[in-house]
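ugh finaly. both done.
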Amino acid sequence: MKEDKVDVVCQIRQKREILPKKQKKLCDYIINNYIKVAFSSAQELAEETKTSLATIHRVSVNLGFKNYKDLKEKLKEYISETHGMPLNKMREALKALDENGLLEKIISESVRALEDLLNEQLLKAFPRSVDIIAKARRVYIIGLRSTRGIALYLHALLLQYREDVFLVDANGTDEMFEVLIDMKPQDVMIALMAGVPRYTKRTKYAIDFAHKNGVPIILITNSLSNAMIPLATETLLSPQNTSHYSAITFVAVCDAIVAAVGSKLKAESQKRLNLLSEVLVKYGISE
């Protein structure tokens, strides 16, 4: 399955060679911005590349797809299939581990992953997600296994800017529901899932519970194949496009959420930060 998806990209590269110059340029744009293209309408792509709708349709067909919609679907499948689960990436990284140039390689891949992060879907869903979080009565954050540390990080930072932020740090399903039982439709759940294709069952249970109780869900995930996407109010796609397991795209999205929520709640956030600073100094925790 995975090889077929890679062949689709190879097919685009190969078929572009026999196309006219203008169509080659469009192919190059698709290859270099495949995540953005996967979530762009034909009109948006035409405006971005300064081409016509007819050219986009013609290129899609010349590349072997039924139409532009079919091309987008294949790109989405490719994105879903090319992001391995964390444990697999860790195993692969250990096999290929070479200390020579390792730091430079990881930094280089991380920079590329961050550049690829700016996909159309994320750019559209992000402001809507921030608005929901800022207006929510309470914010519940859940991230288990590979995303647990990121959930802790997001909780610690978001709590600096607004009150009523809860970390669902479940040691068992029963304890998790003891935290979630008080959720109301005026609240929001932020769920982090990066285990493609095997996500933690407890995170799935939490999302299902929130959905059934009318609670908005902001899902931060690395793959469109995530079965919880239909239950999410907003999905923030954060592909982990590196040879090693990396949480850098998730952390970047969390940093952006914290900064944007702080900006939206500027007066409340400033008051909270000042009060926190006074308390820390008063009790000798900081100087």
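ok and the 2nd:
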Amino acid sequence: MNLATDTLAKVSLENARILVVDDQPINIQVINQILGSSFQLRFAKSGQEALDICLSDPPDLILMDVIMPDLDGLTTCKIIKNTPNISDIPVVFITSLQKAEEENACWQAGGIDYMTKPVNPLPLTNRVNAHLTQKFQADLLKKLAYLDGLTGVYNRRYLDDYLARQTSQAKRTNHAISLLMIDIDYFKQFNDEYGHLVADDQLKLTAYTIKESLHRPTDIVARYGGEEFICVLPDTGAEGAKHVAELILNNIRALEIPHKLSPHKYLTVSVGTATIEAKQNYNIELTALADKNLYKAKHTGRNKAI
């Protein structure tokens, strides 16, 4: 069994989060009685409230009524499907509408399923289980596609997408964003001296150490290529980036991985930093600036951050 198949087989719905959207308390109560003991449920009584929840704490599945005041279920679903960060959330319509054109409107709005009221507990439970399983498997496959096969950290593909999204978010909110470019010092010599297998093991250990040096969920590390890594640090100014860079340097030094061909006698890294401060020029190319500073670090002794 390969990694993807093995991972998919282990999908668990235990912590699945479902958002129930209905303006009638009795309908919410019925669904809570059916699903409340098996899943984590949240409730919204309007389309706008549902959108607010999705944007702040996205659920894994939405059970949506169609007829609601102000923002109805169809419009709410269309907004969700056209909002990039939440467009993948599956929406199941649960409604009293039964005409063919009304059901078709639910599919056209972006729903993945349609059930009529009053709901039958067994079909509802089975359909929820099926849709959640499909959603979690899709999420896992997407995650596997975004991971570097050797080190287990994010790959270049994910990095490019994440950096673009976070830079856009920083510009929209007028927040700072920083990037670190990290290169293992004298790694070619290490590889030649100790062999590919040992070098791969130390590459994996270095990646893990960098990842463990990042303490916020929005901070990520990705393998940029070869022995180079990039960290994206949203909402982080130059001082914060320097602090994280020094933490990474110290944590790598603490490993004390022998490297007899290095003047430092141990495996070390060099770090180039780049920052766009809050409300500054968001058109700055962070990767190019970090690469320039990495070049300076590597040509002024290595084992440092600039």
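summary for the 2nd one i guess: The mean pLDDT is 93.
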